[in-house]
Structure to design on (591 residues):
């Protein structure tokens, strides 16, 4: 029950409260570029959700075993080369590079799959499918997970296992899917509106995103109080929203 | 829609028609050819203003000059903003249909009596400018303008509009300087009796205090068909079922489902804000979904989030879902579904 509460809390905090688009304002390029039609927006959201989950799985594994300070695999290799060394091996300088590679690989996988099984969707996506590689939602999620990976106990304040990292990534993707589908519905309606010429397209889309961000503020604090209801002893300090509430610089 | 009224009189052509052989005149126009002329924007807005009268009366009886001040500031700011923005876009200002006044009045009634003048004014300007003019004016806004303005003002001036603003010992109205019923519940677990909630003898936003006034005005709106009855019915049913079932199982102690119904802006929102015909679904089934979603979201935000009241957020979120609801509830015509064009 405690674990379930943690999962629920993480899910709500990631998908609704700290929604990737409405809270962190990452992933705005596909959010504006592909939100013109509902089915395309849904496809994009689903593709991002899939890619972000794969990327999280791989990046957590790489970070935990190879990149983080004191990672077991790297340390073992280092001890093999330099027997008797007690230095802490830290490859986290390579984080960005590895994440970009991992994301590019996952996107390639999705592209091959979509091309084979959904040719119409593949055509509709056009350049936006390979551009998922540069979708900041995915890199942002990887970096957020990186903050919570520490093989050495006590090296990070709130260490996540692979399960939490995957749940975080899945619901980050679902939050993005939610945002882009809502936006696509609104934009289809917007076709009938007499929007000022200077605001048409991205302008009014960003205005709507701002209004939606205001609306989503209503969910603030929902995760910790839900957890408190499920598990009366759950400490509110463990809320992941508090840990990930800082905005990216 | 005013083109028929302002069309040039045809008297000039009949004078010359006697001299020339009469040409057959065929007027071709797209349908609908029969329109109910009584259901104009003006009439609907007049209905809303009339239905809001009980709320205004309670507000003035309750908060006296403070209520008058809020209403005057927000309404006049909304009307002036409407004129300015319409001029900026080179569109005829739709002042006389009263839609801007209704937006301003609904915004004013959702503000606490102690809110400073600039919060109402900024809220009204944002409501008309961002909530309405940017989307192309009357009838084209995707979100309820008054709630967009209020959300903006609430985030811009959190201290002035938040729950703390209700607690003002310098107001001079001793009976009303306490916290709102919902804030009292959230902060200290105090339960306000039901009767003051129904009559409106509590603190809160100036228009939300009396459940009775909201119901009176709302029933008038529904009877006049200006508001669709499905939305308030759906939301009230959802709220009562969602709070009533646990109450049946666990028994009522203190805060009852009736409290949830009457406290805060729930009824005001259900009857006056959620029923805005522009930003609510078109189909009857969609209206039910909209109402139920509104009721459940209000309840969820009240119980779980950091805010004591969730009407504004619930309306904005449901507004955002309206295109999806519309699309999902397209009624099937008699004789089977329409084949898709492709």
């Amino acid at each position: 029950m405690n674990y379930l509460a943690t999962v629920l809390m993480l899910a709500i905090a990631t998908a609704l409260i700290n929604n990737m688009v409405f809270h962190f304002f990452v992933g705005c390029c596909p959010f504006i570029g592909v939100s013109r039609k509902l089915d395309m927006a849904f496809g994009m959201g689903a593709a991002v959700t899939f890619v972000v989950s794969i990327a999280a799985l791989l990046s957590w594994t790489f970070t935990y075993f190879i990149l983080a300070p004191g990672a077991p695999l790297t340390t073992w290799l280092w001890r093999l080369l330099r027997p008797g060394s007690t230095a802490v091996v830290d490859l986290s300088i390579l984080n960005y590079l590895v994440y970009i590679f991992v994301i590019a690989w996952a996107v390639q996988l999705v592209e091959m799959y979509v091309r084979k099984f959904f040719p119409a969707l593949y055509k509709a996506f056009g350049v936006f499918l390979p551009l998922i590689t540069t979708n900041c939602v995915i890199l942002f999620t990887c970096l957020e997970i990186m903050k919570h990976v520490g093989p050495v106990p006590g090296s990070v304040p709130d260490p996540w296992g692979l399960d939490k990292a995957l749940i975080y990534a899945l619901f980050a993707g679902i939050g993005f899917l939610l945002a882009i589908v809502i936006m696509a519905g609104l934009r289809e309606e917007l076709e009938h509106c007499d929007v000022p010429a200077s605001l048409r397209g991205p302008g009014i889309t960003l205005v709507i995103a701002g209004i939606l961000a205001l609306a989503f503020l209503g969910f603030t604090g929902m995760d910790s109080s839900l957890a408190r209801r499920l598990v009366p002893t759950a400490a509110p300090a463990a809320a992941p929203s508090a840990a990930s509430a800082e905005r990216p610089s | 829609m005013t083109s028929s009224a302002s069309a040039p009189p045809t008297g000039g052509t009949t004078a010359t028609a006697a001299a020339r052989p009469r040409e057959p005149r065929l007027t071709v126009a797209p349908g609908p050819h029969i329109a109910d002329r009584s259901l104009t924007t003006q009439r609907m807005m007049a209905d809303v203003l009339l239905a809001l009268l009980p709320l205004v009366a309670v507000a003035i009886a309750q908060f006296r000059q403070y209520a008058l001040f809020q209403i005057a500031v927000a309404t006049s700011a909304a009307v002036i903003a409407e004129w300015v923005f319409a001029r900026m876009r080179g569109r005829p200002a739709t002042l006389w249909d009263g839609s801007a006044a209704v937006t301003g009045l609904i915004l004013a009634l959702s503000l606490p009596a102690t809110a400073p003048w600039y919060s109402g004014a900024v809220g009204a300007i944002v409501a008309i400018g961002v909530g309405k003019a940017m989307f192309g004016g009357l009838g084209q806004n995707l979100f309820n303008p008054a709630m967009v303005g209020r959300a903006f003002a609430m985030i811009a001036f959190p201290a002035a509009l938040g729950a703390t603003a209700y607690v003002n010992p310098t107001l001079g109205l001793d009976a009303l300087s306490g916290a709102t019923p919902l804030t009292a519940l959230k902060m200290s677990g105090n339960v306000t009796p039901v009767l003051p909630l129904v009559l409106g003898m509590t603190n809160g936003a100036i228009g939300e205090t009396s459940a009775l006034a909201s119901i009176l005005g709302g029933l008038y709106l529904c009877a006049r068909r200006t508001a669709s009855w499905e939305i308030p019915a759906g939301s009230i049913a959802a709220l009562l079922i969602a709070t009533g079932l646990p109450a049946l199982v666990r028994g009522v102690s203190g805060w009852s489902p009736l409290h949830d119904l009457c406290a805060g802006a729930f009824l005001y929102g259900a009857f006056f804000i959620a029923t805005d015909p522009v930003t609510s679904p078109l189909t009857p089934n969609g209206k039910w979904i909209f109402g139920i979603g509104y009721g459940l979201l209000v309840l969820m935000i009240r119980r779980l989030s950091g805010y004591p009241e969730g009407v504004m957020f619930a309306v904005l979120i449901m507004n955002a879902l309206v295109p999806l609801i519309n699309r999902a509830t397209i009624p099937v015509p008699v004789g089977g579904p329409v084949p898709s064009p492709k």
